[in-house]
Amino acid sequence: MKTRVCRLYGKGDIRIEEMEVAEPGPGEVLVAMGAGGICGSDLHYYQDGGFGPIRVREPIILGHEVAGTVKAVGEGVDTLSPGDRVAVNPSRPCHRCRYCLEGLQQHCLTMRFFGSALRFPHEQGGFRDLMVVDAYQCVPVTNEEVSLAEAACAEPLAVCLHALNRAGAMAGNLAGKSVLVTGAGPIGALIVAALRHAGAGHIVVTDLQDRPLDIARQMGADETVNVLSEGERLEAYAADKGTFDIAFECSAAAPAIKSAVAATRPQGALVAVGVAGDVPVPLNMIVGKEIAFVGTHRFTSEYTQAVGLIDARRIDVRPIISATSDLDDVTTAFALAGDRSKAVKVQLSFAASAR
């Protein structure tokens, strides 16, 4: 049995190849992938060969935002059956290290995460027609009206739910809070949806492009600001030491970080969600306004929560899905995913696996 795979060899060198697929072993299932979202990290690997200190050092199968249908189950699997539709959690912590035992599995010392070049050998990802995964990674999608494309958005939504939990730890209940979101890519848009679900009072979103701002409004933003064409509106939010109770910084761009700190009120909270290389931060302003500046990294139990919210359509992720391409058209899909003026979330389709 063979499967197509999307394998990156280096910057700009992505190939569709075939490889053998084993039968699922004890505790495993064979999943026919239905949809996979191109993440910012996938784009960095493709466009730049990595991001920050993380570099592609050997061929790697990309993809960690995936969902599909169970085709076969291995020995001892009694929670899933062939035909079940599932979202696949890309995280595989060891459950034995100090952080796992403390409930901080996202900081596992030997974390195995789909499509990651952090470790060597690299962890291979889910952009393929067929993949054997551990049964515990699969979260059922039971609502027949919810597509696998929607289910594949569970991973980025889980990232956002974890970010909200980090904000809540600093600022308390998010209901009624005024919130700034800088960066309206997929994560920014899903943070808006999660904030709206959590009862945030007033949500303002900034970006450099009109297209993602349009999507942010569909996801629940009250106001949007294009900082290129109407930057003075954002500057107004910095008056009198700031306006917002909480800011979520999703771009990892130094100017956006500075503007978010300026627009956050004294003793507010800023959650740094975006990742990049080392960037400067306005430390004096953070200290002077007593802002809680916190990071957020991946997720733990939020993945199952994200699947449930999508499955019940309590959070509707459909507006962020801009386009879908078959795996064979992967270079076209990556080109579109890299054009923020046209797309927010581009997905790959693996329909050939169903034949």
Overall CATH class of the largest domain: Alpha Beta
Strand content: 25-35%
* Count of distinct structural domains: 2
Number of DSSP helical runs: 11
Indicate the CATH topology of the largest domain: Quinone Oxidoreductase, Chain A, domain 1
Question: Low-confidence segments, ≥5 residues, pLDDT <50?
Answer: none
The appropriate CATH architecture of the largest domain is Alpha-Beta Complex
Number of strands: 20
Mean pLDDT: 96
Query: Based on helices, strands and strand pairing, what is the structural class?
Result: alpha/beta
Major sheet, described briefly? Answer: 7 strands, mixed
Measured between the Cα atoms of the first and last residue, the distance is 13 Å
CATH level 4 superfamily of the largest domain: Medium-chain alcohol dehydrogenases, catalytic domain
Task: Note down, in words, how this protein is organized.
It is built from 11 helices and 20 strands. With 355 residues, it is α/β, with parallel strands linked by helices. The chain has 2 domains: 2-153 and 317-354, Medium-chain alcohol dehydrogenases, catalytic domain (Quinone Oxidoreductase, Chain A, domain 1, Alpha-Beta Complex); 159-295, 3-Layer(aba) Sandwich (Rossmann fold). Strands 3, 7, 8, 11, 12, 19 and 20 form a 7-stranded mixed beta sheet that branches. α11 (330-337) links the parallel β19 and β20 (345-349). The mean pLDDT is 96.
Summarize the structure.
This protein folds into two domains: 2-153 and 317-354, Medium-chain alcohol dehydrogenases, catalytic domain (Quinone Oxidoreductase, Chain A, domain 1), CATH 3.90.180.10; 159-295, NAD(P)-binding Rossmann-like Domain (Rossmann fold, 3-Layer(aba) Sandwich). It has eleven helices and 20 strands.
